[in-house]
Amino acid sequence: MFPKIRRTQYCPAGHSSKDFAYSDRQNYVHSGICDLCTKERFIQELKTCSSGNANIDKIIQESQINNPYYNLQWMPYDNFQNINHKVDGSRGSVYSAKLKNGRKECWNFLKQDWEYVLIGHKVALKEITDSRYDIASFLKMKPIYNRKGYIAEYYGFSKNPSTQNYIFVMELFDDDLHGFINRTYLDLEWKLKIDILLTMICGLRSLHAENYVHCNFHGRNTLVCNYFDEYYNSDIVRVSIDFDSCKLENDLILNSDHKNNETYGSIPYIPPEVLRGNKFTIEGDVYSFGGIMYEMVTAQRPFADQAHDTYLMMTYMVL
Length: 319
Fold this sequence. Notes:
This protein has helices at 35-46, 54-66, 135-145, 177-184, 190-209, 249-254, 272-275, 282-298, 310-317; strands spanning 20-22, 25-26, 29-30, 33-34, 80-88, 92-99, 103-108, 113-117, 122-128, 154-159, 166-171, 175-176, 212-213, 222-229, 234-241, 247-248. By secondary structure, the chain is α+β, with helices and mostly antiparallel strands. The protein folds into two domains: 20-171, 2-Layer Sandwich (Phosphorylase Kinase, domain 1); 175-317, Transferase(Phosphotransferase), domain 1 (Orthogonal Bundle), CATH 1.10.510. The strands form six sheets. A five-stranded antiparallel beta sheet has the order 5-6-9-11-10, with no helix packed on it. It has a three-stranded antiparallel beta sheet with strand order 12-14-15.
């Protein structure tokens, strides 16, 4: 038997299946789909439909060039339906919404149109109202984690035309870990508690392996989704870390002289050395995780019997 010879495929634009669409993968050309055509179409459309911020546009485009199937996209605000307020956070508000037209997946050169996914899918809209928040710095790290199952997935980016605030479009979860524990604590088995903690350890480890420090790790930004898995015929609890507070450890070291300028978070989970004005570290994330372990065991946050105020901070700093 002779080995089967794979025929070279071409798209109308002249791209070949022997071309490399990415550094580690050859171009896929089949059934109207061409990776290189998709990449070029993303670049072309960003020129006419941009965020209005050159730095953000650059980062979005870089993510699309690296891999168009796990990227950031600019998503028009009119693509969102049934917008409902969920919760207010430290940097803004979170809403749930439905994607009317879905999310662009790849360009079909036969139809001369986009193929869409997630049509009618529910998503979370995280509207950033804190002008001090460095969105561009966050987006620089975003493409790294879209394929890691322990990290919350971000689909794209938008802007509220009424407030002019930028919006992160991300997957929607049922609850955060703090709410999940309060709601289900009496029914939680130890095996599930340990599985949740192990998942969080894997998420932290994936961040630390890329030299990132979470800087604000607690139950409110650990997200939980509960669903029924037909394959396993059982209820599944999925836990993901929201990492919009993360920073490169090297950047934290370089900025360590500017003490106290970025100390934020939930007081019981902030390492004492950070409250004293020192930089966040990977070890600090581990300290914060200890607070989450305490909450998982007791269903209470650390220092639950005290007000989380300046007095606690001052007491905490001398530990």
